[in-house]
Design brief:
Helices cover about 40% and strands about 20% of the residues. By secondary structure, it is of the alpha+beta class. The protein binds a DNA duplex through helix 3, helix 9 and strand 9.
Length: about 425
DNA sequence: TCTGGGGTCCTAGGACCC
DNA sequence: TCTGGGGTCCTAGGACCC
């Protein structure tokens, strides 16, 4: 059996942990730049606050009902996420836990049919709550896709289900599939949901499970669709992934806190993001051989299609893969000259590093001088200082010192668990 | 005035090879 | 007068996830 353990309203729960007076009160957490709503407590949901909706549209509703509002505090969420995942690994053994996102993990419960799955689920839930203060929902079923269906049901009816739903019998699975709209299935997004209901009269997960693999291949993205249907029928097609593998791409992208017009500021931003991305790169001991940048101009039809405002990008391939910030910044800011258009108003920019290889096996060429060790020592010294002191104490001059374009973050709570000077105070 | 920031996998099609 | 067949590798883009 497989399971998924999912933290309830994770970011909101993290905030409440240190402000218990907010229990049972509506809470929301905003995305970077205080742009969108990315987490809502149950109370906020029932007030009608929309997920991923723009904050400024929801503001009247939020103010009317006195909803507690927070900017994202990723230091806090990251630390609590780590605690939840460690707890889960201690209960089930590290090899049986696949961390899937900041607030979710798949678990492998083995194939022993004698177990009382519900009890196991309840035990997991209780332990995580006791050890970390975070409430989770658990879905348990024969496959990953079905466990996600179970988890959905657990969340829909929290009290009745005690946040644990087990699908361990044929009838239960069929009933669950019949009660799940096709668009709620893990792996069916907006495009496919529309296509399935409009063109194929497939409305529920059950309808979809009745389709043939050939049909899925034709209409649901090839092999991906075949796997999905197999899993709905209880046949394994998505195995547990071992170990967190190294990332294949590393990106740092941000909206600006205000409109940006000058090439100087775009270059500062690109240099800053490159430094950030390079740091992530070194953390996983990789080096990149391709660097891409993009900028997004303020769109004409901003209201209709804000997300896909025209994005212009370009990339360059480096002669040798590297993880040194200065070797990445230089080509990155040179790329800005290629795409910057004078007089344009920019909203966003980003840097992506790809073609990642292990740091140790960098393919050199005849004409490069090997000064690698010195560079690596320098970079790790900088990383260490920045890690200990935080807030990028050491930065590259091209990153700028004022950074007027930085994102807004006006309602962030203290980083209670990861900064000495922001520790929770008991008076 | 104000709409996030990461990632993954897969496929089609072009370039190129013999 | 006549122009194959079978590969590989790479990239762009589309779908999805949280």
């Amino acid at each position: 059996m497989k399971g998924i353990v999912d933290c309830n309203s994770f970011y909101c729960s993290c905030e409440r942990l240190f402000q218990p007076h907010l229990d049972n009160k509506p809470v929301v957490v905003l995305s970077n730049n205080d742009g969108c709503i990315v987490s809502r407590s149950d109370e906020a949901k029932s007030l009608g606050v929309k997920m991923a909706g723009p904050y400024f549209l929801a503001k009247p509703l939020i103010e009317e009902h006195n909803v507690a509002t927070f900017s994202s505090n990723y230091n806090l969420y990251g630390d609590l996420s780590w605690r939840v995942m460690e707890t889960l690994k201690m209960i089930l053994g590290e090899e049986n836990v696949e961390v899937y996102s900041v607030d979710e993990a798949f678990i492998d419960l083995g194939e022993n049919g004698e177990n009382d799955w519900k009890q196991i689920g309840l035990q997991i839930r209780k332990t995580i709550e006791q050890w970390t203060g975070i409430m989770v929902s658990v879905g348990i079923a024969p496959t990953k896709v079905l466990s996600k269906v179970a988890n959905h049901l657990a969340k829909k009816d929290k009290r009745a289900a005690e946040c644990v739903v087990v699908l361990d019998a044929y009838e239960k699975i069929i009933a669950a599939l019949q009660n799940t709209p096709v668009g709620e299935i893990w792996g069916v997004g907006r495009q496919y949901a529309k296509k399935l209901t409009d063109m194929h009269a497939v409305f529920t997960a059950y309808d979809l499970s009745q389709k043939s693999p050939e049909w899925a291949h034709r209409n649901l993205g090839g092999v991906v669709g075949i796997r999905l249907i197999k899993e709905l029928r209880g046949e394994h097609a998505n195995e547990m992934k071992d170990e967190l593998k190294e990332k294949k791409m590393i990106a740092t992208t941000r909206m600006f806190g205000r409109n940006v017009k000058s090439i100087i500021e775009i270059k500062e931003a690109i240099a800053t993001y490159t430094a950030k991305a390079a740091e992530k790169l070194r953390r996983q001991y990789s080096a990149a051989n391709t660097i891409s940048i993009f900028v997004v101009a303020k769109g004409q039809n901003h209201n209709i299609d804000f997300r896909h405002g025209e994005s212009i990008g370009t990339y360059t391939r480096l002669p040798i893969a590297t993880s040194s910030t200065h070797e990445l910044i230089k080509p990155a800011i040179e790329l800005v000259d290629k795409i910057f258009v004078h007089g344009t108003i920019y909203k966003k920019a980003g840097v992506m590093l790809s073609g990642l290889v292990p740091d140790k096996t960098i393919q050199g060429n005849l004409f490069t001088e090997e000064k690698h060790n010195g560079k690596r020592l320098l970079m790790s010294a900088i990383d260490n200082v920045n890690f200990a002191m935080r807030d990028d104490v050491i930065k590259f001059a091209t990153s700028g010192t004022k950074r007027n374009w930085k994102m807004r973050m006006e309602m962030r709570s203290p980083r209670y668990t990861s900064r000495w000077d922001e520790l929770y105070k008991v008076s």
